[in-house]
Amino acid sequence: MDQLEAMRSYVQVVDSGSFTKAAQVLARHKSTVSEQVAQLEAHLGVRLLVRSTRSVRPSAEGLAYHARARQILAQLDAADAELRAARLAPSGRLRVQVPVALGRLVLMPAIRGLLDRHPQLSVELGCSDQTVDLVREGLDCAIRGGELPDSSLVVSRLGELPFVLCAAPRYVDAHGLPRHPDELARHLRVGYLPAGQRSPPPLRLVDGTRHVAIEVPARLLTTDSGALLSAGLDGLGIVQVAEFVARHHLASGALLHVLPGWSCPPLPVHFVTPTAGLRSARVRAFQDWVRAVLAQQVWGVGTAGN
To answer: Among 22, 42, 207, 270, which residue carries the largest CB count within 10 Å?
Structure first.
């Protein structure tokens, strides 16, 4: 027996005053409604309805049960309606984790557009380059770079993040500019430590079909992309940073492009959520907004719509 459906049939019989009318309202067969009420009475061990050839009315116990059952069903319907509305209109608090540079330089400056568009939405934007457990931390979604390991996360690819090799004029004045990747081994770099690694990966460069991986000495290591940029601007070594991070500094001359004839392999960027179930409207709205903002601010195509 589906007790909630049996309760719904019973309440409608009392409200309608007959099994026939209740069946019409519920779009069920009269025999189904009658059987559900009978099962409910058997389950409770109480006669809920007093039946006659011409009418049906609740017993004293049935009248009290009707009031409680009607209240329960009203609360259930309200909860269902609230969730359905939440799927359609973004609302409530959204907890997100994004990489530091992406959050500070791209998403945070544009987030007013998201909040203005969805006034019932609030956002907790955590900026970190470290990988955390979304479920354990109670996060709704995250943006992550790199190839992701197999997991229970639902992954949607956002695009590829271009990187560039740079150095500050102060570093170039002291050490010169390498003319070929082979010369990088005689230079210094500021190394970035990805989550879970104890040493930085080699610098990888591509020129057409040629691929090289160079181990460049690092006197300074960091797990923070913001600190990496600061150290590079201070001339502490060659840095490999996202193109959108370096763009302004390259234009101003605060950074110089190292080995411009070679390119750095792009980094895949993903939008991840904890489960494969129905996503809330706030998660869908945030993902759509992120795609639009990245298209304009990072990849330079489309309209951000922010």
So the answer is: 22
What is the radius of gyration, based on Cα positions, of the chain? 31
pLDDT tens, position by position, 260-280: 999 999 999 999 998 755 568
Sign of CA dihedral 201, 203, 208, 209: negative
- Counted residue by residue, the chain has a size of 306
Instruction: Give me the number of domains the chain comprises.
Output: 2
Q: Which pTM does this prediction carry?
A: 0.68
Answer whether 160's CB lies under 8 Å from 268's CB.
yes
Domain-terminating residue out of 51, 71, 88: 88
Task: Provide the token pair at 86.
Answer: 């939440």
Per-residue pLDDT at 91: 83
- Same domain for 205 and 306, yes or no, is yes
Per residue in 239-267, pLDDT (tens digit) is 999 999 999 999 999 999 999 999 999 99
**Domain match, 8 and 101 both:** no
Q: How far apart are CA 46 and CA 41, in angstroms?
A: 5
Name every residue whose Cβ is closer than 8 Å to that of residue 284 and which is 6 or more positions away in sequence.
Answer: 90
CATH number at residue 217: 3.40.190.290
For residues 121-129, average pLDDT: 92
- Residue at a domain's end among 35, 53, 88: 88
| Distance from C-alpha of 258 to C-alpha of 193, rounded to nearest angstrom | 21
Q: How far is CA 170 from the centre of its chain?
A: 40
Domain of 224?
Answer: 91-306
Is 28 found in the same domain as 98?
no
SS3 label, residue 278: coil
Pair of tokens at residue 306: 């922010």
Q: What is the DSSP letter of 185?
A: G
